[in-house]
Amino acid sequence: MTSTHDADGDLAVRTAGLTKRFRSGQVAVDGLDLAVPRGAVYGFLGPNGSGKTTTIRMLLGLAHPTAGRAWLLGSPMPDAAARVLPRVGALVEGPAFHPYLSGRANLARLDAGDATADPRTSRRRADAALDRVGLSAAATKPYRQYSLGMKQRLGLAAALLQPRDLLVLDEPTNGLDPQGTREVRHLVRELADGGATVLVSSHLLAEIEQVCTHVGIMSRGRLLLQGERAALTEREAARLAVTTRAGQADAAAEVLRGLGLADVARDGRALPGGAGTARLTAALGPTPPEKVSAALVHAGVDLVGLEVDRPSLEQVFVELTGEGFDVAR
Ligand SMILES: Nc1ncnc2c1ncn2[C@@H]1O[C@H](COP(=O)(O)OP(=O)(O)OP(=O)(O)O)[C@@H](O)[C@H]1O
């Protein structure tokens, strides 16, 4: 008998060697080992066509893997789908909404199809979900009159009809305006604060990066890197920029080198501080920036400015792949 439980119970989502080869021969997902800790907000990031949706469809049992395995909340998919999926709220492309029914009636219809839901409290659940996604005012409008953003919000509301342990949201900010995008970020944070694990995909890295505790970055069907968000950006060297009085540049450079900072260089650009100032840059490495400022002051250098530039995830991605992030394959 095969085990029905994943030994690693502290992962809300796990895959091992998950692979999808389409009939065309294209390998859309290639040996994926995802690890989403319970309670995480996991940003599943990658350019258009990198394999995020295909992965999510396999996780939810909507597509069959060519190879590999997947576990949701510790149970294998798709074998445990009937038991696990009621605990999982999902937003994937094209939820089946009826065009002539209102948003509220569509939710009521979905709710009625859920054997675990109490029909007496259906209306309350639908209204609460509409309220959470900011659709209360459009609750009675027919779905076909919804804008793309409103449709997306209704998809989110459907995922939130029940309390969930895990939310899998595929591109939830698609079609939303900046205000809607902010609201989705806020909602994701709220769901995580309530104890849920959230797996959220996006091809717009910067939109989601800020709310994630963890990220996995896809490129051409492979997981390029995965882990705690802070660690991923910090492992790439942060750059330090120091502005001093022009006559003190050499002394400052000596201090920086003395602290073991690599790649110390004079920045020749025109400076906001004016002609009397000089700017030096260096790779910060593990040295705390406050140690740098203390050492400079101690050496009698007048510190006009000190900045630390940590690379964004997008910069990390571009450095790793040599490609822009938002590109179609
Ligand atoms: N049913 C299919 N048959 C053949 N190829 C497919 C199919 N579905 C997806 N693909 C291909 O697999 C690759 C991965 O697509 P997928 O939709 O998983 O990417 P994605 O990362 O979700 O992209 P996006 O950000 O654009 O949604 C793409 O090259 C796509 O063209």
Automatic annotation (TrEMBL):
Ranges in a coiled coil: none
Residue ranges constituting the ABC transporter domain according to the UniProt record: 13-245
Highest taxon of the lineage: Bacteria
GO molecular function annotations of the record: ATP binding; ATP hydrolysis activity
Keywords: ATP-binding, Nucleotide-binding, Transport
One Pfam family matching this protein: ABC_tran
Entry's family note: Belongs to the ABC transporter superfamily.
Protein name, entry field: ABC transporter ATP-binding protein
Organism: Cellulomonas pakistanensis
